Amino acid sequence: MNILFRYGESHNLTFAFPTIKFHYDYPNFFSTLNVSGFSTEKEQNYNIMCHHMRFHLPEVQKIMPSDTFYFTILRNPVTLMESSFAYYRDSSSFIRARNIETFLSNPNRYYQNMSYDSAFAKNLMTFDLGFNHNGPESEEQFKLLCQSVDAMFDLVLIAEYFDESLVLLKDALCWTLDDVLSIPLNTRSDRSRHVLSAQTEEKIKSWNQLDWQLYMYFKNSFWNRVERFGKERMEKEVEELRRRRAQVSEKCLDNQVEPYQLRDKSMVPYQPFAARILGYNLKPGLRREEQQLCHRLVLPELQYSELLWTKHYKTGEVSP
Q: Which of 1, 39, 50, 79 has CA atoms 20 to 30 A from the CA of 20?
């Protein structure tokens, strides 16, 4: 999201902002009613739509141009669920479980399948992509799910291979490596992390079987795409991307710290129920031209979204 925010801001592109500012009425399906200022009675040209949503392609297509490039990112369901348990600890399905092992020992005891937030505890990616996270589990269903997602998106990135994903994204969009340069954001402190046993990992895969099948299918197709891109070419571009990241980190960043250690309190990331999200202190004495780049690279999602919303509203591009 930070990459898209920075590209859109630097190129004066128009964002399709949510009426709720930070998400499109999530966890409900996306609707055109969720886009601030949108009307079928006037011509509007949106360039980027990137806030949180439960994807619904027919409604998105009413907003975005016909040549829109659609991409998404998947994450290993094992690490995703460990993270979700910390991030959404107060959700209806998790709140009564002492820890993630307790939940997985008898998930049906805790899982509230009819609650509005049930997807936080099961097949979250399947849900976010617009499918039934409580749907049937069979080879036929797995195949239909993967084929449907494949048909909707031009590119599916893989979080565990983030740098390779950025290179593929850059290539698909005809961008530069500087356009996809990023600093890791929304990172939890070590004390918010939970080490999982091999047995627990297997339980997570079984419980999130739709997500697991989706992830394995697109992990395989991802590496097929890397093969077509060229392995040697990929290695060189990833190496260069990492060199530039190290360079900009050295120039911009003083340290990564707990929220209470941030010198600029306006840079504190959103802190969920049971996780501590780290932030960055910038180096003092940055030159004016460096200050904005460094600031934007580590600006938390909610603050950056608010900044862009205000900027567009003041220029009259977005209705209140």
A: 79
